[in-house]
Amino acid sequence: MAELGGTHAYVHWWDRRGSCQNNCSFASGEAAATAWMFGPAVLVPPHWRAAAMAGAAAFTVTMSALRIAAGGHFLTDVLFGALIALVVLLTAYKLVFGWPWAAFQNYLRRKRSTTSTAA
Questions:
Q1: Cα distances (angstroms) measured from residue 56 to each of 13, 21, 39, 91, 106
Q2: Cβ atoms of residues 60 and 45 within 8 Å
Q3: What is the DSSP code string of 5-73?
Q4: Which pLDDT tens digit goes with each residue over 66-89?
Q5: pTM above 0.85?
Q6: pLDDT tens for residues 25-81?
Q7: 94 vs 88: CA distance, rounded Å
Q8: Per residue, what are the HEC states of 66-95?
Q9: HSE toward the beta carbon, residue 102, CA cutoff 13 A
Q10: Which of 1, 6, 38, 64 sits at a 20 to 30 Å CA gap from 97?
Q11: Are the beta carbons of 46 and 52 closer than 8 angstroms?
């Protein structure tokens, strides 16, 4: 980007007329690395888990915003970086602990069974 000392003029991500033909944008490694803080946050005892998740979210958003403000990445770069890390974390969580919504599904089953017996 010429504004930051580069050789290419700035164009919006949706504009295909830019001088860069391929591989011009990439997922943010910084956003992905900060999103990994959700991994330890889910292992915190239940009464502290919400605070740990909020802290991980605030850290991820802050660091991603700093990367955008510094001109290192576009919004889509940090979103994809964080999304990639979160998908990997969710998959690992599923492999170790099972899907996190299993308790909710059990609740729905109990709710349906009590509703059908009451009718």
A1: 28, 36, 9, 18, 28
A2: no
A3: T-SSPP--TT-TTSS--SS-----HHHHHHHTTHHHHTTS-HHHHHHHHHHHHHHHHHHHHHHHHTTS-
A4: 988 887 787 888 999 999 999 999
A5: no
A6: 678 888 999 999 999 998 899 899 999 999 999 999 999 999 888 877 878 889 999
A7: 10
A8: HHHHCCCCCHHHHHHHHHHHHHHHHHHHHH
A9: 6
A10: 64
A11: no
Tokens of 68: 């955008």
Q: For residue 84, what are its two tokens?
A: 């990639």
State the residue for tokens 């729905």.
Answer: 108
Residue 20, both tokens: 């860069």
Tokens at 93, concatenated: 């969580």
